[in-house]
Amino acid sequence: MLRTFSRINAPRLARSFQTSARRMETPTGALPQKKPVGAFRGGLTGFLLGSVTAGVGMYYYVMDEYKMANTLLTEDIYSLQSAVQRIERYVRVLEDKVEKKKRGAAVDELQPPS
Length: 114
Known about the structure:
mainly alpha; 3 helices; rod-shaped; transmembrane; transmembrane helix; membrane
């Protein structure tokens, strides 16, 4: 209770908000005005950079796949060509054998039986 009494009777110090004139002034050209970079310009640059990088990577990937597929196709063509040549040789040999048998049968028919 004593405390409350002393507070009531004590003189109050009024505080006021005070600032110096210097702080209240607005700065006149102390800091240069910055142009806003903005999300649009930065985003557009990032998008274009990412797109170009992805495009270049995709180009090299597709070209590598194309070369590999072209090599495999060329190898298949050469193996098919060699298989066709072997079959042609085999057919020629068979045709020669058939021709020889026909000639042998025709010669046997021409000779009189003895």
